[in-house]
Design brief:
Layout lengths: L2 H11 L4 H8 L3 H9 L9 H8 L3 H5 L12 H12 L2 H23 L8 E5 L16 E5 L10 E4 L14 E5 L8 E6 L2 E9 L5 E4 L10 E3 L7 E7 L11
Parallel strand pairs: 1-3
Antiparallel strand pairs: 1-2, 3-4, 4-9, 5-6, 5-9, 6-7, 7-8
Amino acid sequence: MSVGQRLRQRREELGMSRQELARLLGVSVSAIGNYETGQNYVREDILVRLFHVLQVDPNYLYQDAYQPAGFHCSAAETDLIKQYRELSATGQQTLRSLLQGMLACQREAEELGAPAAAREIPLYRSPAAAGYAAPVFGEDYSLIPVTGEVPQGADFAVGIQGDSMEPYIHDGGRVYVSLDPLQNGDVGIFCVDGEMLCKQYYKDPLGMIYLFSLNRRRADADVLLPRDSGRSMVCFGRVILPRRPALPAL
């Protein structure tokens, strides 16, 4: 089955007309017709929106079919799309802001011809409540050079307010964040139901996710996410610390 045939099949399964799909994607009705008949490929800039609207993974449309030139979705990218789809509208906007900010930083560095040794990363500095990181990535940041105290593995930095992560992260301090995957016990930057948090991560064998405050006097700020809670959570990265803090007793 071709990509266009799968697209049409899924649209009809959802009881969606070409007009409705065109409206949701921001394209013309004739463009939808061309996609379904194979006359044109779906542009890469609307692919993620298409997967979201059709509620499918990329592999659903492209299984057993030729992929457009230059398009490839790895397993990791597919997983990111799944996580994006699970976010609330606010969470999705936050993620888009982060990506736009990082891309803008990259383009600016490329335009200036900045050498690798002078790599810069965004510092998000919006004020936030106790234990929270910058609430809206991309809206309030500056570029800082990766020199001196900035770890070479850092991809971005955020300002922190509050005492819920003491004594490892101080009120008014700054943390450096890597996009490396998290392991149990790592501290990360999370978006939970649209709110940004800096917490210690733990996932138990049953799928329960715990986001702990390192300052156990602020255990009231812990977040528990049962496997079937329906709440949205995405991790933006791992906070780089000298050592991994011990997990609190469960």
